[in-house]
Amino acid sequence: MSMVVSLEKNGRSFLKDQAFAFDFDGVVADTMSLFASIGREEFGLTDLYPEKITDYDLTRCLDVELDTLIQIITRVVSADYNHRLAPLPGAKDILQKLADKSGPLLFVTARPDGESVKHWLKDTLHMGEDICEVIATGSFDAKAEILQNRGKKLFVEDRLETCFHLKEAGIEPVLFIQPWNRRPHGFHEVRGWSDLAEFFGV
Ligand SMILES: [Mg+2]
């Protein structure tokens, strides 16, 4: 049975082999909601809501000065805002179930620094370094090599461009549906964590 055929059915084999890993922003954490609320509350962008973010490149979908976007993003990724960053519904319980079944989980983020993510996972999901590891690559395209080196064959990601890049590198992407990735693709996609639980069979 080929990898693609088994992927269409479920992710159990990837779970058994510990061959999966997760993106963080937009998959585990509801990062765009924090982005939008900082924009509304601190920058007066009163009509900024996650549904308006229809492209991962924010300059393409929002009529907001680049300098302002950068200031908001700087706040979003700062540990000072960690307490306002919510998990996406179901992420906490299902990640715990996956960790119970497979052992420590790997998160690979394109953030340049993984410290705030590590603290958030510990404080918000109660996942310490004994059950999870965070690797910050600083670039989207660096994810594939990290995953290959760690023997990961499947990655849950919300940035469609990264999914195409991973697929080329032989990593099977699972696209986590978000308003900013609604363009044609041929990847397996999930609508939230209950779909992911079903996919992994937990
Ligand atoms: Mg992401």
TrEMBL record:
GO molecular function, one term: 5'-nucleotidase activity
Gene Ontology biological-process entries: deoxyribonucleotide catabolic process
Matches recorded under InterPro entries: 5'(3')-deoxyribonucleotidase (IPR010708), 5_3-deoxyribonucleotidase-like (IPR052419), HAD-like_sf (IPR036412), HAD_sf (IPR023214)
Active site: D23 (nucleophile), D25 (proton donor)
Protein family (similarity comment): Belongs to the 5'(3')-deoxyribonucleotidase family.
Protein name: Haloacid dehalogenase
Organism: Desulfobotulus alkaliphilus
